[in-house]
Amino acid sequence: MNSANNGPYGDAIVEEVIPALEKQFRLVSAPWARHVEGASTGGWQTLALQLQHPDFFGGAWVLQPDPIDFRRWQLVDIYADTNAFVVQTGPFTTTERPFRRTTEGQVVWTNRQLSRFEDVLGSRGRSGYQIEAWEAVYGPTDADGYPKPLWDKRTGTIDRSVAAYMRDHGFDLRDYAQRNWATLGPQLAGKLHFFAGDMDDFYLNLAVYRFEEFLKSTTNPRSDATFTYGRPTKGHSWHAWTWADFVRQVGAVMKRHAPAGHPALEGFP
């Protein structure tokens, strides 16, 4: 997607990169033949491209995506929570919010630890690490010309204005899809395919569950998106199929939507 900090990458992919590839190589220049796939950050980008350009791509294969519902930015609700570091567990107690876990549930890093690590690596959002990478893509530019942080890296206090910017500019993909479903829904029929492990190392399955809840609630049209979950204890690197089988699955979907007798399908099983 286009970003205030990173530039018009979404436009560049759709208007420059893909047309150049289709001109240079033996590719089919048609939506039914353009499928996008990605995992983790690439999974978020995959869904964003399909939602932003629903008629350009013929399918999105979204594998363990970075948060696609910001009410579950991992374990933080950036709209309702006030602090990214701790959660109130009782009238007098708080617990640190994890950032990463093992597939057995052992906490590896907390939000506080990673935030301070990134703060040491570089000031003004220049660590090049995960939290600040998200802020650079989704967030606004601060007065100093650098990405404006979603939360204070030393205290964890969430800046609600940044959260609102991310939502209002379409980076919360569930919110974007929900607000635009009347027009998006018909354009996404047969195109959305989600995959996640039930013990994703970064808790990314939680936002996928929220996206599924939304899509299951849709009407006029009702979503036909597919969701495949790895169980039990499948982590961030889990895949439902081998890559060879994955290519066959994508190819089968392309074949169903291709014009009858298209020469690109000759010899296709």
Describe the protein's architecture and organization.
The protein has 269 residues and is an alpha/beta fold. The longest helix is centred in the N-terminal third of the chain and has 16 residues, at 9-24. α6 packs across α7 (181-187). It has a 4-stranded parallel beta sheet with strand order 1-2-7-8, with helices on both faces. A two-stranded antiparallel sheet has the order 3-4. The protein has 2 domains: 9-69 and 173-265, Alpha/Beta hydrolase fold, catalytic domain (Rossmann fold), CATH 3.40.50.1820; 74-168, no CATH class. The protein is 37% helix and 13% strand. Keywords: Plasmid. InterPro entries: AB_hydrolase_fold (IPR029058), Esterase-like (IPR000801), Mycobacterial_A85_antigen (IPR050583).
Note the main attributes of this structure.
single chain; 269 residues; alpha/beta; 2 domains; two-stranded antiparallel sheet; 9 helices
Would you list the SSEs in sequence order as H and E?
HEHEEEEEHHHHHEHEH
Unreliable spans:
none
Helicity level, as a percent range? 25-40%
- Number of extended strands: 8
Span of the ends, CA to CA: 35 Å
**What gross morphology would you assign?**
globular
Strand content range = 5-15%
Main β-sheet, spatial strand arrangement? 1-2-7-8
Number of helices: 9
Number of domains: 2
Broad structural category: alpha/beta
CATH homologous superfamily designation of the largest domain: Alpha/Beta hydrolase fold, catalytic domain
Largest sheet: 4 strands, parallel
- Rg, please? 20 Å
CATH architecture assignment name of the largest domain: 3-Layer(aba) Sandwich
CATH class of the largest domain: Alpha Beta
The pLDDT mean sits at 96
CATH topology of the largest domain: Rossmann fold
